Amino acid sequence: MSDLLAEQLAYYRARAGEYDDWWLRRGRYDRGPEASATWRAEAAEVEKALDAMAPHGAALELACGTGIWTARLAPHASSLLAVDGAPEALALAAARLRGEAHVRFESANLFDWRPPRRFDRVCFGFWLSHVPEERFDDFWGLVRDALAPGGQFFLVDSLHEATSTARDHALAPAAAGVQARRLADGRRFEVVKVYHAPEALTARLARLGFAAALRATPNYFLYGSGRVA
User: Fold this and answer.
1) Residue 54: predicted pLDDT
2) What digits encode the pLDDT tens for the residues 99-134?
3) Which residues of 63-209 form beta strands (DSSP E)?
4) Cα–Cα distance list, 151 to 56, 155, 196, 210 (Å)
5) Radius of gyration of the chain (CA)
6) Which residues contact 196 (CB under 8 A, 6 or more apart)?
7) Which residues touch 33 (CB under 8 Å, ≥6 apart)?
8) How many Cα atoms occupy the beta-carbon half-sphere of 65 within 13 Å?
């Protein structure tokens, strides 16, 4: 598993410069105007839910990537710590958030990292699916340690939908746990990809002591919020 996690990190470091193409539905990720319109509508639903949670106070973002969600969190938070394992992605995030003095970036392997303090909000986008099953409980222990009393977490992640990924990707079965990915230059990597359904994830989190309200959009996204029960 350590080799797979190292390969996963290498992939996201190498992919940093083209990561936004996926979110913006450009290039290999453009599945046509109808699919793009559906994506944007479902993304807007998730963004509205994040805004409704009002991620104010001290916020922590795990696996911030190139800062797409960091930019969404920054206007709400009084302070924001954004952590990622890929320095190349962090550089792009820092450029995107240039001038936001209350936002701080930290490069760290999230499988080893521990929160330096407690936060009012802990957010992570498209990260939980890259956490191996054997590290699931440990990751949620990190979330618990990071949350201040009364604090909330917010997550968004991918559903198992073929048109979510690039045209030159063959989507593995949902139960596989591993997904092959290619960069635009043809290099091939394998990454952890564990798909979660809202009902099953809600129940699983309840057993770990979290109360969560999770839902799915029709095609692309799992999202929701919760707190320590």
Assistant:
1) 79
2) 899 999 999 999 999 999 999 999 999 999 999 999
3) 79-84, 103-107, 119-125, 147-158, 177-182, 188-193
4) 10, 14, 23, 11
5) 17
6) 128, 129, 157, 222
7) none
8) 22
Q: What rounded mean pLDDT belongs to the chain?
A: 96
pLDDT surpasses 80 at 79: yes
For residue 72, the 8-state DSSP code is: H
Query: Distance between CA atoms of 115 and 61, rounded to whole angstroms?
Result: 11
- Provide the token pair at 61: 């973002």
The pLDDT of residue 56: 84
User: C-alpha distances in angstroms, 20 versus 66, 98, 114, 166?
Assistant: 7, 17, 27, 12
In the prediction, which pLDDT does 216 show?
98
Dihedral angle sign, alpha carbons of residues 186, 5, 216, 170:
positive
Token pair in block for residue 129 = 């699916």
Contact 83, 60 (CB under 8 A): yes
> Going from the N-terminus, what domains does the chain have, and what CATH number goes with each?
2-228 (3.40.50.150)
Count of C-beta atoms within a 10 Å radius of residue 75: 11
Is-above-0.90 flag for pTM? yes
Q: At what angle do helices 87-96 and 2-15 cross, to 10 degrees?
A: 40
Specify the amino acid at residue 179.
Q
